[in-house]
Specification:
The protein has 114 residues and is mainly α. It has three helices and no strands.
Length: 114
């Protein structure tokens, strides 16, 4: 089972190129969906490994690979959020900027704890 380790899904660096009302990941939604399908395949493979009574260490290795794939996807989404949603809110100022920064801070804390 292969995994993708790159965080950059190929989105534009300009937050204005994302929809002004949409989420930053919309420009690369197809790439994220492709990665999620790959991760779904990895999880299905884990189920088959357990059903086939494969060696514990092999299963743990695949769990680790799946975890890394999910973490990489999460980092990509976080990067999109920072580059688009947070930057856009910061440009507009006001309460929305503080809300977006707090959301990003909380998301980073959740990722670090996981």
């Amino acid at each position: 089972m292969s995994q993708q380790t790159s965080v950059d899904p190929g989105y534009p660096d300009n937050p204005d190129q994302a929809s002004s009302t949409g989420h930053g990941y919309l420009t690369t939604k197809d790439a994220y969906l492709k990665r999620l399908r790959r991760i779904e395949g990895q999880v299905g493979g884990l189920s088959r490994m357990v059903a086939d009574e494969r060696y514990c260490i092999d299963i743990l290795t695949q769990i680790s690979a799946t975890t890394r794939a999910l973490e990489s996807l999460a980092l990509g989404l976080l990067d999109d959020h920072l580059r688009h949603c947070v930057v856009r809110a910061a440009r507009e100022g006001g309460d929305e900027a503080e809300i977006k920064l707090a959301e990003a801070r909380d998301a980073i804390a959740r990722l670090v704890r996981s």
